[in-house]
Amino acid sequence: MPIPPDAAPAPSAPRKSPRALAAALIVGILIGGAGVGVAWAVSGDGSSGNDAAGDARDACRALSGFETSDYVTKGAKGEIAMNRFGAAITLSASAAAGDAQYKPLAKALLTVQNQHARTFDFGNSEVKKNLDKAHQICDDLD
Predict the structure, then answer these.
(1) Helix, coil or strand: residue 21
(2) Distance between CA atoms of residues 138 and 22, nearest Å
């Protein structure tokens, strides 16, 4: 005798692996960062210019406003932190594509992103070291 539909066990939701969730988070950050970067560039005050140097300055502005402690905060603070981090990565990559002198900044931020994706900890010594390196590169650009 078949089991009536209302007595059948409910199918369980498929489980996502931690790697799939991390990949989805990274993709979301990049897409969000790209959107923020584009909006920033389009609506900017015109002082940065539409060139590699302007992208590098904007990446550094986004990085200077990025608070690592807010990254895990729920709500607006967390969204701002994630978007600023993503914007810094995206804009530094754009700057590096336009001028090779900005490749160290893009490389440092990409390294931070990759290390953070593995550790989920901005306090990790390697993540912190490369984040400090990116800040130093930005300081040297001024």
Answers:
(1) helix
(2) 28
- Angle ∠(54,56,59) on CA atoms, nearest 5: 110
Q: Would the pLDDT of 13 be above 60?
A: no
Question: Nearest CA to 112 among 94, 125, 124, 130?
Answer: 130
Q: Each residue of 4-29: b (16+ CB within 10 Å) or e?
A: eeeeeeeeeeeeeeeeeeeeeebeeb
Question: Side-chain half-sphere of 26: how many Cα atoms within 13 Å?
Answer: 16
Global pTM value: 0.68
Burial 56-80 (b: 16+ CB within 10 A, else e): bbbbbbbbeebebebbeeeeeeeeb
The tens digit of pLDDT for each residue in 48-96 reads 567 999 999 999 999 999 999 999 999 999 999 999 999 999 999 999 9
What's residue 46's pLDDT? 47
The DSSP code for 79 is H
> Which tokens hold the place of 70?
């807010």
